[in-house]
Amino acid sequence: MTDASADPSETYAYLGPAGTFTEAALKQVPEAQGKTWLSVNNVGEALAEVVAGRATAAMIAIENSVEGGVTAAQDALATIPGLRIVGEYLVKVNFVLVAKPGTKLDDVKVVNAHPVAYAQSRGWLERNLPDHGHIPAASNVYAATSLFDADSNADAAVAPPGIVDQLDVEVLARDIGDNPNAVTRFVLVSTSKAIPPRTGADKTSLIVELPDDEAGSLLAMLEQFSTRGVNLSLIQSRPIGDALGRYRFVVDLEGHVEDERVADALLGLRRFSPRVLFLGSYHRADHREIEYHSKYDDEIFIEARDWLRGILSGEPEA
């Protein structure tokens, strides 16, 4: 619930309650420190707060190194107009198995877990609790807090390690994630059209639809990037939903819209695709400088345009 007294320009929405990985991502945003943090139940609520002007931005999970793209977030960004990604943040992910005090591991028959957390710890659970049942939870923290509900049927929960600071729970096992290198990528989403300045270590996010019933259209889309030396860090298909077999593509590319090679690729996409949605250019969370061949330097594209302008204006060739 939104605090009516909170200044929307100083309010940030996130998947709560306190202790979630989303909150850990929001802690990385300097501008959000000391401001109002609004806990919501899901991605849709977080983005609704931004669209309605009750929050200046929302932190949402967009991709996991183990499970891939977070489809609920991708679909929301594709269908809710006016949103822009203004920042990217990485959070290392691990889990503990917790229960109410006095519970032993042998007592556990049913486990509460957010579906993504469950997928990332399923191997451990199947090895150590081969006969367990699973109840999906709205968030990693809710998985643990719901253990104390009077009607709860769960004996334990998969939760973030920081849950011990929030609840009086017994830790039955630590480091139960199947991949110790798991990382979740979060994005800060706003309605601001101001594009963060390019740094040389940037990423651009798009959603691209393909023309209907055209053989080779996916290849044609990919060629817009490859012929300009633009590397893709994510490409994932999602159903558009209006007809069977119609898909949109969620694309993350290396570079900034102010880079000539990226801008030229976007122009190519715009000519080719019935719909290109620009979701934003922003600084990479890993700060890695983008590497590309010198033949795709800005100056090469600028010189080529000047050459063509000279031809059209009748200037003598050098």
From TrEMBL:
Pathway: Amino-acid biosynthesis; L-phenylalanine biosynthesis; phenylpyruvate from prephenate: step 1/1. One of its GO terms (molecular function) is prephenate dehydratase activity. One of its GO terms (biological process) is L-phenylalanine biosynthetic process. Residues 206-281 form the ACT domain. Pfam families: ACT (PF01842), PDT (PF00800). The record marks T184 as: Essential for prephenate dehydratase activity. Keywords: Amino-acid biosynthesis, Aromatic amino acid biosynthesis, Lyase, Phenylalanine biosynthesis. Residues 11-191 form the Prephenate dehydratase domain. InterPro entries: ACT-like_dom_sf (IPR045865), ACT_dom (IPR002912), Chor_mutase/pphenate_deHydtase (IPR008242), Preph_deHydtase (IPR001086). One of its GO terms (cellular component) is cytoplasm. Its EC number is 4.2.1.51. It catalyses: prephenate + H(+) = 3-phenylpyruvate + CO2 + H2O. It is an enzyme of class 4 (lyase). NCBIfam families: PRK11898.1. This is Prephenate dehydratase. The gene is pheA.
